[in-house]
Description:
Blueprint: E1 5-6, H1 11-18, E2 29-30, E3 47-48, E4 54-58, E5 61-66, H2 83-97, E6 103-108, H3 123-140, E7 148-152, H4 165-171, E8 173-179
Parallel strand pairs: 6-7
Antiparallel strand pairs: 1-2, 3-4, 4-5, 5-8, 6-8
Amino acid sequence: MSLNWKFGKTTEEKENFAKYDHQPLSAFTVTPTPTSVIPTPTSVPVVVNKSGIVEKHEDRGLVLELPSGVLFSSGKAALKAEAQPILDEAANILMNMYPQAHILIEGHTDNIPIKNSKKFADNNALSAARAEVVQQYFVDKGIEAGRMDAKGFGGSKPKVSNDTAENRSKNRRVELVVQKTVQ
């Protein structure tokens, strides 16, 4: 993916952001091109970093969407081995770029009911468990537990229709919402 950036900050700020391996939307002005903008229902540009973490600004704050399918196996709340570098990068973003912000960790699933699970009664329980696992990972990495809340939404907030396997995959996700603070 090709991104065209026009830097609109001071040299010191550019150097500070260069220390980290991503470019938050708040740091730069995006010049949309066909390859740099991912269409969304509100046509808001988003940034995808090299680990596949999607950063987008919404009314509720900055949302970091972690790549679906990489964190958890179907019907499970145990992290996959390949989740570690993605969660490490997300923790780095949260600790270094937003050290005082409150973070809501949201777990989401598709609309396919869980079958034969002794551990989870339904998708709400599964999504809540996944959000809590991500929260504990961040606590283990040094983010204060009091800065975070974990919540499962099951299939109640799909990004897209659940009519195809590909769309259901998009709906299975964890979102980190860096919440706006009220002064």
